[in-house]
Amino acid sequence: MDSNRLEFFRTYMATACPTGYEEEATKVWCQEADRFADRTWVDMHGNGFAVINEGGSPRVMLAGHADEIGLQISHVDKDGYLYFTGLGGWDPQILPGQRVRIQSATGQILGVVGRKPIHLLGDEERKKVVRLEDLWIDIGARDGEEAARLVAIGDAAVIDYGFSELRNGLVTSRGLDDRVGAFTVLEAARLARDLSPKAAIYAVATVQEEIGVRGATTAAFGLDPKVGIAVDVGFATDTPSLEAEKKKIGEASMGKGPLVTRGPNINPKLFQLFLDVAAKAGIPFQTVSSPRATGTDARAIQITRAGVAAGLIGIPSRYMHSPSEVVHLDDVEHAARLIAHVVASIDDQTDFIPG
After folding, report:
1. Cα-flanking dihedrals φ and ψ of residue 167, to 5°?
2. Contact 234, 317 (CB under 8 A)
3. H or E stretch including 126?
């Protein structure tokens, strides 16, 4: 990945984007899109849009959800400790001791997730899994009055982890699920612009996927596309303890290409188009199956209005829904190239009717 694209990726990942509170990250995404898109805008729901070749046909929607799992302040006690609920699906076991950044009207507030020290836990308490209601956030407030001046009920927070490069093309950050997808669809649109597409290409940084695929639902209804391609993270199985899981979810490795999904949620002709284009362009890929509606934006896109030819591209990821998710930059680049070439091959005569 060239230095300019990597720098934008780094900046985008550093921006907090808890589900339902995506405004700042959407602004960053749209500012980048303004460099090459015909136009950009944000809808009533908060989805960010960038269109290439707006007068073209048919309409193709590329969706990556920008939101990440987070926390929401639900109570401030008299001593200044903050209690919270989860925004999206958390494993509470990873939260104790984490630093968090609360997005408040007074600016970002640093806090620490607290729990009763292990030294003081009784035998039965040690056997129990951690629950969110057993945890609190300490912002160093003197009392509840000071805390309430700094933080309001409903403020959102994210884990205080940033973007870092590991080795051999691997990068780590919180929120790669799925800002890597929102980054990828924007990259695909940028690349497709130079391939003389016939289609109008709408890249969308969708919102609120983590709480029910909500942004893609409204965005797809508004755009009414013929084709919709979602990009999300998928499970990499090249780590310890996942050998048995391969029988259920298939096999996927880092750096061997994006995951092309096949199953009821996926239009069969669009799936085949991905394979044909990948072979012609020499783009590596891996195939995975999904036997039902996926837990991604593709689920909503497929059943919008009278139906959309839906596809799903996955970026292999390790340690999903943790503060240190991991992806491979080569997989991101190959995903963007594959989508760009697929979209550039679509015109009004392209048939997606199954059969």
Report:
1. -130, 160
2. yes
3. helix 123-127
Beta partners for residue 99, in sequence order: 112
What phi, psi does 338 have (nearest 5°)?
-60, -45
What are the φ and ψ backbone dihedral angles of 247, each rounded to 5 degrees? -65, -25
- Mean pLDDT score across all residues of the chain: 96
**DSSP bridge partners of 172:** 164, 326
pLDDT at residue 127 is higher than 80: no
If we measure between CA atoms, which residue out of 353, 47, 349, 352 comes closest to residue 223? Answer: 47
Closest CA to 311 of 277, 348, 349: 277
Give the pairing of strands 200-206 and 59-65: parallel
Q: Which of 14, 272, 317, 355 is closest to 163 using CA atoms?
A: 14
Q: Please answer whether residues 22 and 207 qualify as being in contact, where contact means their C-beta atoms are separated by less than 8 angstroms.
A: yes
- Give the list of residues 6+ apart from residue 27 with CB closer than 8 angstroms, or none: none
The per-residue pLDDT for 129 is 83
State the number of CA atoms in the 13 A half-sphere of 15 facing the CB: 24
> What SS3 state is found at 228?
strand
User: Residue 318 has what pLDDT?
Assistant: 97
How does residue 295 score in pLDDT terms, banded at 50, 70 and 90?
Answer: very high
What single letter denotes the amino acid at residue 156?
A
Q: Active-site positions?
A: 209
- Number of Cβ within 10 Å of residue 140's Cβ equals 12
